[in-house]
């Protein structure tokens, strides 16, 4: 049994508190700030990516050695494909001809 | 990463079967990333095609969206704590944290269902416009995943109560943990890309 010396899940608490703060920052940016719409969209998307990284690294043990390099490999390629699919669709269907 | 983590592998990784299952689940998650990417792409392309249906900016409510986000975020946290407790070998606190996770998942689902019913009452349904089709398919696919996760978790709780923490049950709990955190990752992007942007534009 892999008993740990630590009793408090510090990583999880840090991740949770940061995520809650980032959620409120994103909501505030979108609803209360007076930034131009483009800047709002860019900044809240950046905040979302940071939050996703928190989930992956602090909660999902992405860098844990147990499953080799697969987790990192899968998530990296998944993210690249997701970016190509979303950006590519927007380019071909909405913005490419402007 | 601390040194004890490097030396002693957690129970779920100790058998080859466990390791392979976890590796396989990561491959599944990569496929899920692509699935949701296609739905996000569809949503993004159909953004603004409202036809005669209501505009999302008038229907989305900041308060309930934030509540749903915080519920799911907290459930992801409690699920992470559950896996942490499992690795300490404590069945009892593992069960407690998983039950909290389950309750939060159920309340998230309740909010989502009442939200969808509210939209349908206002005239925004799957058939109303291209935009709402894309919206309901995207948010609905996530909701279906949550529903599936809730059923899965209930069955695992029964198995866990019967068998305790073994190399098999710990592997299953670890995998459902990955699944649950992943659903929160998807929700973060729905919260940001759909709700917040829908309320800004």
Polypeptide structure, described:
The complex is a heterodimer of chains A (98) and B (201). By secondary structure, chain A is mostly helical. Chain A folds into 2 domains: 8-60; 68-98. Chain A contains 3 helices and no strands. In chain A, helix 1 (10-31) packs antiparallel against helix 2 (37-59). The longest helix of chain A is centred in the last third of the chain and has 26 residues, at 70-95. Chain A is flat and about 55 Å long. The termini of chain A are far apart. Chain B is mostly helical. Chain B has a single domain (34-46, 61-200), classed as Cytochrome c oxidase, subunit III, four-helix bundle (Four Helix Bundle (Hemerythrin (Met), subunit A), Up-down Bundle). Helix content of chain B is 82%, strand content 0%. Chain B is built from 7 helices and no strands. In chain B, helix 4 runs antiparallel to helix 5 (91-121), helix 4 runs antiparallel to helix 7 and helix 6 runs antiparallel to helix 7. Chain B is elongated, with a radius of gyration of 19 Å. At the A-B interface, helix 1, helix 2 and helix 3 of A face helix 1, helix 2, helix 4 and helix 7 of B.
Q: Summarize this, please?
A:
The complex is a heterodimer of chains A (98) and B (201). Chain A contains three helices and no strands.
- Rg of chain A, rounded, reads 18 Å
| Chain pair with largest interface | A-B, 55 and 59 residues
Main β-sheet of chain A, in a few words?
A: none
Percentage beta strand of chain A: under 5%
Gross morphology of chain B is elongated
Label the overall shape of chain A: flat
Instruction: Quickly give the structural class of chain A.
Output: mainly alpha
As a whole number of angstroms, the C-alpha radius of gyration of chain B is: 19 Å
CATH homologous superfamily caption of chain B:
Cytochrome c oxidase, subunit III, four-helix bundle
Low-confidence stretches of chain B: 1-5
Mean pLDDT of chain A: 89
Instruction: Bin the strand percentage of chain B.
Output: under 5%
Taken together, the total number of domains of chain A comes to 2
Using the coordinates above, name the CATH class of chain B.
Mainly Alpha
What is the CA-CA span between the terminal residues of chain B? 42 Å
Number of domains of chain B: 1
- Helical content of chain B stands at over 70%
Q: What oligomeric state do these chains adopt?
A: heterodimer
Major β-sheet profile of chain B: none
Number of strands of chain B: 0
């Amino acid at each position: 049994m892999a008993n740990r010396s630590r009793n408090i899940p510090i990583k999880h608490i840090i991740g949770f508190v940061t995520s809650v703060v980032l959620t409120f920052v994103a909501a505030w940016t979108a609803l209360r700030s007076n930034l131009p719409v483009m800047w709002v969209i860019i900044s809240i998307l950046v905040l979302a990516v940071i939050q996703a990284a928190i989930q992956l690294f602090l909660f999902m043990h992405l860098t844990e050695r147990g499953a080799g390099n697969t987790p990192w490999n899968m998530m990296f390629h998944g993210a690249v494909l997701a970016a190509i699919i979303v950006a590519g669709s927007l380019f071909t269907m909405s913005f490419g001809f402007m | 990463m601390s040194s004890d983590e490097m030396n002693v592998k957690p129970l779920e990784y100790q058998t080859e079967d466990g390791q392979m299952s976890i590796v396989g689940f990561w491959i599944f998650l990569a496929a899920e990333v692509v699935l949701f990417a296609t739905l996000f792409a569809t949503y993004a392309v159909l953004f603004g095609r409202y036809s005669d249906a209501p505009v999302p900016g008038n229907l989305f409510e900041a308060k309930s969206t934030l509540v749903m986000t915080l519920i799911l975020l907290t459930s992801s946290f409690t699920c992470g704590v559950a896996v942490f407790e499992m690795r300490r070998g404590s069945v009892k606190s593992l069960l407690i944290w998983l039950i909290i996770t389950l309750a939060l998942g159920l309340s998230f689902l309740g909010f989502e269902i009442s939200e969808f019913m509210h939209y349908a009452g206002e005239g925004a349904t799957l058939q109303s416009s291209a935009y709402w089709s894309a919206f309901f398919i995207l948010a609905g696919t996530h909701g279906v995943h949550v529903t599936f996760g809730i059923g899965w978790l209930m069955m695992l709780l029964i198995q866990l109560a019967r068998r305790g923490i073994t190399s098999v049950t710990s592997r299953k709990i670890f995998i459902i943990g990955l699944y649950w955190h992943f659903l929160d990752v998807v929700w973060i992007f729905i919260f940001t890309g759909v709700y917040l942007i829908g309320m800004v534009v």
